[in-house]
Input
Amino acid sequence: MPMLLIKGTYRILATQPDGDTLHFTPQDPGFWCDVAGKNQVVRNSRGGGKLRLDGIDALETHYLGVGPDYVNQPVGDGAHAARDELLKWIGFTDVVQGEDEKVTASTPETVPGYILASGADIFGRCIAMAGRGPLPPDTKDGERIHVDVNLVNQTANHHLLSRGLVYPTFYSNLPTELRLDMADTAKQARTSAVPGSVWAKDATSTGATITGMSSITKDLVILPKLFRRLADYIRLFGPSLNCFPAYLAGEGEEFYVPEEKNPVRGLQHIVTVTDNTLKLTRDIEDIVLVDK
Output
């Protein structure tokens, strides 16, 4: 599947970037209208939009969900590391943020770059690979191009995955060739499990014992998708996970696993709960979520 090449600039002032989301303003904001899919990219007054980096999921730094307050995953175990590395890789230095994590100053204010857009999610964020610097002069802004492994390996998505600062999280719109390469990159990072990576303290597959909200906000590093489901569940029903499989069934998220031709409905099929300990029974990179 070709992706839409859009050239422009990254700008983070007055935004709350994290390890997989940041703002981008095209040279021609009209190209947002050419992003594939049924969802439209939401634009601000500058013509910019929010990016959701494809194929990866960073620890949450400010998740609202069912509210009323924002919650975060353990910031000292990767949440801030992924964000800081993303901004550094893009080209920002001396980034100053307030208590709400909103950027109040950065050097420089904008950084040139490009994105390879494949669609938009239900929140109006552009799903994309994020590149930095200028492209070769023969590349045409607003053109749909074939994206190969070599080009993906030059993006922030691949960089963060290779450093083990984010989890792989694949959706069905990501071409198989690219997904398999990103999966291999994630496996290598998991095997290395270098200090400071999400894999160094990951409890997704070994078992995460939940005693309350602080278990997932201060103590345990787990796949962000499961964190979001757990955070909402605990706020609604409390820390007992007896009904968590039923809650996941009610969410009805569809996904593929290698041995099944048709999508499986409900994450309860790959999550077990024993004595309030949650465990993902499949390798994260084997799961391909169905796009909404």
About this structure: The first helix runs from residue 79 to 90. The chain has seven helices and 17 strands.
